[in-house]
From TrEMBL:
Tagged with keyword Signal: yes
One GO term of the biological process aspect: beta-lactam antibiotic catabolic process
Catalytic activity field: a beta-lactam + H2O = a substituted beta-amino acid
Assigned protein family: Belongs to the class-A beta-lactamase family.
Principal EC category: hydrolase
EC number: 3.5.2.6
Keyword Nucleotide-binding recorded: no
InterPro entries: Beta-lactam/transpept-like, Beta-lactam_cat, Beta-lactam_class-A, TAT_signal, TAT_signal_bac_arc
Protein name stated in the entry: beta-lactamase
One Gene Ontology MF term: beta-lactamase activity
Beta-lactamase class A catalytic domain span: 133-269
SUPFAM superfamilies: beta-lactamase/transpeptidase-like
């Protein structure tokens, strides 16, 4: 069973205190009913429970500044998460446990569900050339029809209930990781998928487990997530060096702009350092001008990613 991270990843609220289950539910309800607050939460409460609390403060201050400038609207909520593999610490944790629309960020989780089935029944669930090509199109080109094909394959080897079978496999095999994940719909032909959900914390736990090789077929999943394609974590981020390698998946609809992935960069001695970045911006209704909205919100994620890189560079003398 892939049920636990051996790293302490206790969720942190925006006031920097670990969330007890009752307090987590209370804050999740508060976040769900509060609009126009700092990064979807409470203004000015920003300390992470680590020695790197300054990075969380910087992220909060940057997002607050962008709200004041009108770059983020009052009804837009955000979640941010950063885990530093070198320090083995969560260094940014903002609204992590709040379920948000998943959009195409659900696709690596769909692939993982298939790999779970392979791990449990290799005689029937095989990684054929056709399946590999389908997964590559799903993750590299964000192909919706290919995502539906993998969902159907997972369901075929489960109870034939469609997308809910994908969620069932994930939660059966790794319940401690996919706590706020909800998969209920195929990706429509129009690409307008709004009902599937996951939290930044789910993505964080997932990325950590994959990076550390504690998921079936972790290396293969990372290979596909590193294939050339779009990302908001490095492309267009002026500060990141060409040596940076990114393993990611974006999510884009008229109601959500997000990216989640691992960034790996060498230091000046050639030693690699890696960290996760999850950034999600969600609005309650469709943007009137999708193109302009998704570009501007993507730039916000890029600015935050650059801020995170600068902190990592200062700490580890990255190139």
């Amino acid at each position: 069973m892939y049920e636990r991270n051996h790293v302490d990843e206790q969720p942190i609220a925006e006031d920097g205190h670990p969330l007890r289950p009752d307090r987590r539910n209370f804050l999740a309800a508060l976040a769900a009913t509060s609009a126009g607050l700092l990064v979807g939460g409470v203004p000015g409460l920003a300390e992470a429970a680590s020695n790197r609390s300054s990075l969380q403060r910087q992220v909060v201050e940057m997002v607050t500044s962008m709200r004041r400038q009108g770059l983020l609207q009052p009804n837009e909520k955000t979640s941010w998460s950063v885990y530093d593999f070198t320090a083995r610490k969560k260094v940014v944790s903002i609204n992590e446990g709040v379920p948000r629309q998943a959009a195409s960020m659900i696709k690596p989780l769909v692939a993982q569900a298939y790999f779970f089935q392979m791990d449990g029944n290799r005689s029937q669930v095989r990684y054929t050339d056709e399946v590999r090509t389908t997964m590559e199109r799903m993750l590299q080109r964000s192909s919706n029809p290919d995502t539906n094909k993998i969902m159907d394959l997972v369901s075929e080897h489960q109870s034939r209930r469609g997308p809910p079978d994908v969620e069932l496999v994930l939660k059966q095999r790794a319940p401690a990781i996919f706590q706020e994940t909800r998969i209920v719909e195929r990706i429509p032909t129009t690409g307008q998928t709004y009902r599937n959900q996951a939290s930044a914390h789910d993505y964080s736990r997932f990325l950590i487990s994959v990076w550390e090789g504690r998921m079936p077929n972790s290396k293969e999943l990372l290979r596909m997530m590193a294939l050339p394609g779009g990302d908001r974590l490095s492309k267009g981020v002026a500060g990141l060096p060409p040596a940076a390698k990114v393993y990611n998946k974006t999510g884009s609809t008229a109601m959500l702009c997000g990216d989640m992935g691992v960034i790996e960069i060498p230091d000046q001695r050639g030693r690699n350092h890696a960290y996760t970045v999850v950034g999600i911006i969600e609005r309650p209704s469709r943007a009137e001008n999708y193109g302009a909205w998704i570009r501007s919100r993507g730039d916000i994620i890029r600015r935050v990613s650059n801020l995170i890189y600068q902190d990592m560079k200062n700490n580890y003398r990255l190139v």
